[in-house]
Every structure is written in structure tokens, then in C-alpha cells.
Amino acid sequence: MGTANLKGMRMNEAEFPRRIALIDVIRGVALIAMAVFHGAWDVSYFKLLAFDPGESIGWTIFARLIAGTFVTVSGISLVLATRGGFRPMPYFRRLAMVVAAAIAVSVATYILLPEGWVFFGILHQIALASVLALPFLRLPNLGVLVAAAFFLLLPQFFRSDIFATPALWWVGLAPLPPPSFDYVPLFPWFGCFLFGTVIARFALAKRLDRWLAQWSPRRWPGRALGFGGRHSLIVYLVHQPILFGFFFILAHFVLPGTVENTARTECRASCMAHGFESEGCVAYCGCVYDSADTAGLKGKLIFGSLSSAEGVIVQDIVRTCSVKALAPPVSVPAP
Questions:
Q1: Are 85 and 8 in contact (CB under 8 A)?
Q2: Which residues contact 55 (CB under 8 A, 6 or more apart)?
Q3: What value does the mean pLDDT take over residues 173-195?
Q4: Alpha carbons 141 and 196: distance in angstroms, whole number
Q5: How large a percentage of the chain has pLDDT more than 70?
Q6: How confident is the model at residue 17 (pLDDT cuts 50, 70, 90)?
Q7: Distance (Å, rounded) from C-alpha 53 to C-alpha 57?
């Protein structure tokens, strides 16, 4: 079993069961969970609510479970796709699609969200893992499990400034994570991919694929999840622009007052965290946003889209308001 996947001989496709619907349903569930997380992130990004998913342990665990599910299922899928022997054309066609999608995500986020653009997200990880995992398909399961544990655990015990250079951020062993809205580096996530290959190889050894292939969802929720899972790449690429656009319109045109109130609340919280009194912070934040409004920069201040020249103007506003409301200004909190 450990060496069967990459042998040159081609086995008859009829010897293997049809597509396993359960895998597609699992992907579909993960897509729903991802849409929920991205929706929460958009709500926070556009300040529709005063919370930050990145600062919540619950949301952080939720996000990692989603990423882990996608990467692990990708490892399972690689084994299932090569159970009849390695077929170069389907493999490279799928790899090219994932690489192209990863590049598209990087370009789009670099243009729209340069402060946290996605240079090595989940699609980049899946593409790289799909290549790096091929030699592991020849190893016995125990060897692959050891390798998976190595990738999963090493970041807990070893990190180095050597990997802090941007050219090596993709490795995942820098002391601090780089700024990115979707960061899924080699360590530890390749370990999840390898773990997925072990799961699939165990299932094949027990002929569970034939048993699982007999099941298919009969009701519409399962069918919808399965459909989304079969087309997970296109769903992944489309869902976030739709959500982002929806919340953009909501924040800028439907609920601008809510967004401003949230921004002022966050400003006051930041001010008080610097040790200033509540009354002074209310006056300071009111001064900053009212002055920015007079200068025609309130919207850009709220959404963090100030140009360099506009940033200088806002800095002058901040200094003036801090002197008025927070004297003596021990430190000037950013709005």
C-alpha cells in the first residue's frame, strides 16, 4: 500500500468507486464556515461592529479549524486521485488551476488591501503541498506520520530570525507572523496535508472508499453542500468578493452612521487604554473626527484609506486635539 500510488502502471478506472460524495459535503461545510468567518472579518474591517476576529481566541480557533479541514481534505484528495497510478495530465491541470487562483488572490489583495495582502494563503499552501507530498506517497504510513508530526510540532519549539526575511515568510518559522489577511505557511500546515494522505491510505487499505462511495445525500441541504464541495475552488474565489462588496455598500451607503459610531467607540477605547480619563477621551475623539470631517477626510480616516499627504493633515489634527483634550499629552493615541 505504501508504494502503490506512484507506480507507472495504469489501472482500470472501473476498478475504483465513483466520486466520494462525503468528501464533497465536508468541503461544502468548510466553505460555509469560511464564508461565516470572512463575513465576520468584513463586518470588523468596515467597522459595522466594534470587534476584531483576529483578537478573539474563539474566532482564531474557528479559522484554524477551517484551514486545517481544507488542507487535510486536499491531502485525502491527492491520494484518491492517484490510487490508480499517477496521471500527469489531470494532476498538472488541477495544479495549474490552483496556482492561477492563488496568483489571482495575491494580485487582487495587493491592489485592494496592500496593508495585509495575501502572499501565501491557503491556495498557495495547497499548491505547494500537492507537489511536496508526491515523494511521501512512496513512504510507509508510519514514516509519513512522523513527517506530519515534525511539520506540525516544530513551530512550537523552534523559530529563528533567519526566517523573518520576506523571502522566507512562506516557511512559517519566523518569530512573529508577517502582516497578511490569510497566512497559511509550510510549517505547520503541510503537516495537516500529510496527515490527510495517511487517512486516505488507511481508508484505501480497508477498502472504505468502496463503502463510502455508496452513500450520496438525498435531501437538498446535503446536495447543495456536495455541489459546493465539487466546485470548491470557484466558490472560494467568488464568495469573498461578493461578501466584501455587500459589506462595502452597507458600510458606505446604508449604515455610514453606524460605522462612524463604531470608529469613535474604538477611538475612545484606544485612548483610555493609553491611561487617559474617559471624559478627555470622548472630547479628544470627537475633536479628531469633527476636524477630519471639516477637512473632508472623515470617511478616509474611518476606513484607513488616507494618502500620505492626507495622513500628514490628520497627524496635525491629532496633535491639536490631544493638546486641547488630553493635556498633558503623555502619549497620543491613534484614532
A1: yes
A2: none
A3: 96
A4: 11
A5: 92
A6: low
A7: 8
Which residue from 308, 311, 282, 284 is spatially nearest to 295, judged by alpha carbons? Answer: 311
**Cα–Cα distance measured from residue 184 to residue 57, given in angstroms and rounded to the nearest whole number:** 17
Q: Does residue 332 register a pLDDT over 80?
A: no
Q: Are 39 and 240 in contact (CB under 8 A)?
A: no
Q: Is the four-CA dihedral 159, 160, 165, 168 of positive or negative sign?
A: negative
Q: What is the mean pLDDT of residues 113-124?
A: 94
Tally the C-alpha atoms within 13 A of residue 32's C-alpha that lie toward its C-beta. Answer: 12
Residues 6+ apart with CB under 8 A from 257: none
pTM for the full model? 0.85
Q: 123 with 101: CB under 8 angstroms?
A: yes
Cα–Cα distance, 204 to 198 (Å, whole number): 10
Instruction: Please name the residue that has the C-alpha cell 474557528.
Output: 62
Does residue 228 contact residue 253 with C-beta atoms inside 8 Å?
Answer: no
| Residue 16: predicted pLDDT | 57
Note the pLDDT tens digit of each residue in 82-113.
988 889 999 999 999 999 999 999 999 999 88
Q: Quick one: three-class SS letters along the chain?
A: CCCCCCCCCCCCHHHCCCCCHHHHHHHHHHHHHHHHHHHHHHHHHCCCCCCCHHHCHHHHHHHHHHHHHHHHHHHHHHHHHCCCCCCHHHHHHHHHHHHHHHHHHHHHHHHHCHHHCCCCCHHHHHHHHHHHCHHHHHCCHHHHHHHHHHHHHHHHHCCCHHHHCHHHHHHCCCCCCCCCCCCCCHHHHHHHHHHHHHHHHHHHHCCHHHHHCCCCCCCHHHHHHHHHHHCHHHHHHHHHHHHHHHHHHHHHHHCHHHHHHHHHHHHHHHHHHCCCCHHHHHHHHHHHHHHHHHCCCHHHHHHCCCCHHHHHHHHHHHHHHHHHHCCCCCCCCCC
